[in-house]
Every structure is written in C-alpha cells, then in structure tokens.
Design a protein that fits this description.
One of its GO terms (biological process) is polysaccharide biosynthetic process. The chain is α/β, with parallel strands linked by helices.
C-alpha cells in the first residue's frame, strides 16, 4: 500500500491460496482479508457475529478503515471474499489464520479460555497439510504449547505465530509497508509462514515463537509506558502551573534525541493496557514499569477532575466531553478513557454531556448542543473535527491538539 491515504499498490501473488480468517469480521481480520483478496487469494471470513457478516456481505464496512470502503465492494465483486459463521469451512482451506482477541481476566492476567475453545474448534475441522497462523496477541509460551498439542494429536498441520502490528484504522496502508515478524513451531512451519508473507509483498523477519510473542508484547508495552512518561510529566507541569505544550515544543524542537517523546493524553484502546498487563503477569514483578504506567495512565482522568475542582465548583456545572473513541478519528470506544472520565465527572458535576462524530449513541448529543449547554469542555479524543474548534468556554486539552505547535 502507498503511504499516502487514498492510494493503494496491489501485489499479485503467483500461487493463490484458499485462506480462512477466524475473527474475520474484526478490526484485525477484516482488513487483512481484504488485502489478501486484493492480491489474488480467496478468503473466507469466519466470525460468529452474523450481523457483522451481513454488513460485510452488503458491501458496507462495519467500522472505519482507510481505503476499505472502496476495496470491500471490489473484492466482493471478484468472488474471492466469502463469509461464514461455521468452522466447517476450515477443512477446505490451505491456510487458517486466527485473529481473535485475547482478553485479560479480572486480575489482569491472560485469559486463555476463549482462545483454547477456538483452537479446539479449529482442530475439529482442520486437515493434514494446512498452515495455521496465529496473529492474536498471546502470552509467551502459548504458541509452543499449541505446537505440542498438534504433535500429540498427530494433526499434521504446521503452526506458526506471526503477530499483527498495524495501527487500527490504517491497516490497509500498513500491511504491505511494515516488516512482518514470523515464527514457527518447526523449521517447516517457519519457512511456510515466511513464504506466505513474502508472496504477499512483505519483508519478513524470522524469530523463534517466544521471541515473536515477546516482540508483539514489547511493542505495545513500550508505547504504553512511553505515554505514561509523558502523562506523568504533564501532571508535574500542571502542579507547577507550567504549560506542558510549550515545554514539549521547546525540548523537541530540532533536538533529535527527543524524537521518541510522546505527547500527553489518554492512552486507551483494546491493546496497550491489556498487552502490558499480559507481559507483567506471571513474571515475578519484573515489569514493575508496567504497573506504574497503568497507575499513571488510568489515573489521568481523575487527575484532570481534581485539577478542575481547585478552580471550579463542579456541583452546579455541566461539563462536556468532546470525543469518546479510544483515539482520534476512530469509531472504536473499547477501553476508551473518555468513559472513565465521564464516570468520574458524573460523581462531581451537575451534568455530563458527551459527543462523538464517529460513534452513534443515544446518550450523546450534537457538537452544537454540547458547546451551547456546557460550562467546561474537555477533549477526549483528537478527532479532526475538533482541531479548529472555536469556543468561548474553558477547554481542557491534555493532548495539546487544538493549540498544537509542531517542531
């Protein structure tokens, strides 16, 4: 894919395969399936969400993804994209790809029950000679454990772990740009996975399964901890009544050693916190930075409200939250800290109003209403619609999005 939005560059594979993607209606599986179809493979999206599949069959994307609105109708018309709620279709495939989410439990430990159940269903319908690719984020050791089960049952399939590393909403732009980490429980599995992604047009980096598992967890944990550093600095600047954005601009301007310094803001979403906690679990507290990062990032909404209370009697005020997605220009509310902010504000304010141009909710109001009826506004997500927002109301913008100075 071309780096410029709206442009795509398709790689046509020489040997088309039949591919099934489990969790194929989701944010990881669906864009991957579209890209595979576009380069010549035949793809079956296997997902238990029938309503989601019906939306896909109609040619409509169930969520926002750059370039997907144009690509989905094209691959449907080609006849290469199919949808199914049944695992029986797996026996007809050459490659099975698993993209289901792997949640953490109430103790923030990895919850493997759902993953194990899916894999049992896969084993019931797979056939010898298939390549099984796990793209879900898993706890270190899960892939090798899966390989042992396959060997014990003499299923004669090749098991590989190839984590996805795309940014949600930009998958089709990044799938053929980013190097692909591949691994296998056997040398043959690793070689087949490398060949699959190479034919797809990706540069391949081969690792052992545990190295690939750790590589994915390291990536998301690094980002989460990076955000925590910036949020901690933001809180310190606030206590000194200093302008964090001015400091940020000053110390990053033409100073390459600060290129990795993230901006402050809500660090939410379905992956960063979860993956950091997976890495910390069962590791004898070796990742104490992870627990500290969670305390900082998850504590930011409460910190904002406490700062507001110093200068305002919130009990008689209406506060409006602009943006409820977990990040800017995104329609996904999962693990968005805007909802935690709303919960904290509900205990302190007369009324809390929310708006979002991408998320349809009966609880939300229009941007016009929230501007008219709120006494204070708080930016919850950096949607482009808010960048040039004109308001006479106090606006709390932790991200520095609306007044951003670029180095």
């Amino acid at each position: 894919m071309n780096a410029q939005e709206g442009q795509t560059e398709t790689t046509q594979v020489q040997h088309p395969l039949r591919v099934a993607i489990i969790g194929g209606g989701g944010h990881v599986g669906l864009p991957f399936g579209l890209a595979l179809c576009d380069c010549g493979h035949t793809v079956t999206l296997v997902d238990l969400n029938e309503a989601q599949l019906d939306t896909i069959r109609s040619g409509q994307m169930p969520f926002q993804e750059i370039n997907a609105d144009q690509l989905l109708p094209r691959v449907l018309e080609s006849g290469r994209l199919h949808c199914s709620t049944s695992f029986t279709a797996l026996s007809e495939q050459d490659v099975i790809i698993v993209t289901i989410g792997t949640p953490v439990d109430e103790y923030l430990d990895p919850s493997l029950r759902a993953f194990d159940q899916v894999m049992e269903d896969v084993f019931q319908h797979c056939r010898p000679g298939q390549l099984l690719i796990i793209r879900s984020t898993v706890f270190p050791g899960v892939t090798q454990r899966l390989g042992r089960l396959v060997a014990e049952r003499d299923l004669q399939i090749d098991v590989s772990y190839c984590p996805e590393r795309i940014a949600q909403g930009r998958a089709l732009l990044e799938l053929t740009q980013l190097p692909q980490l591949v691994s296998g429980c056997t040398p043959q599995a690793a070689q087949r996975a490398a060949s699959f992604f190479s034919d797809f047009g990706q540069e391949v980096i081969e690792l052992s399964p545990v190295e690939a598992e750790l590589g994915k967890l390291f990536t998301n944990s690094y980002r989460y901890i990076n955000f925590a550093i910036s949020n901690q600095f933001y809180m310190l600047a606030q206590r000194y009544e200093a302008d964090f954005d001015r400091i940020y601009h000053a110390i990053t301007y033409k100073y390459p050693r600060m290129n990795g310094f993230a901006r402050a803001g809500f660090a939410g979403g379905p992956c960063l916190l979860k993956d950091t906690m997976q890495l910390a679990s069962f590791n004898h507290n070796l990742l104490t930075l992870g627990q500290t990062a969670m305390a900082v990032n998850e504590g930011l909404p409460g910190f904002i409200v406490e700062r507001l209370k110093k200068n305002h009697d919130l009990t008689g005020l209406t506060v409006g939250i602009l943006g409820m997605g977990f990040k800017g220009n995104c329609d996904d509310p999962r693990s968005s800290l805007s909802y935690k902010l709303r919960k904290v504000l509900t205990l302190e304010c007369r009324r809390v109003l929310c708006t979002d141009p991408f998320i349809d909710s009966s609880d939300f109001v229009s941007l016009e209403t929230i501007q008219q009826e709120s006494d204070i506004l708080i930016l919850g997500a950096c949607h482009d619609e808010y960048r040039s927002l004109q308001t006479t109301k106090p606006l709390i913008d932790v991200f520095g999005f609306t007044t951003r100075q670029e180095p």
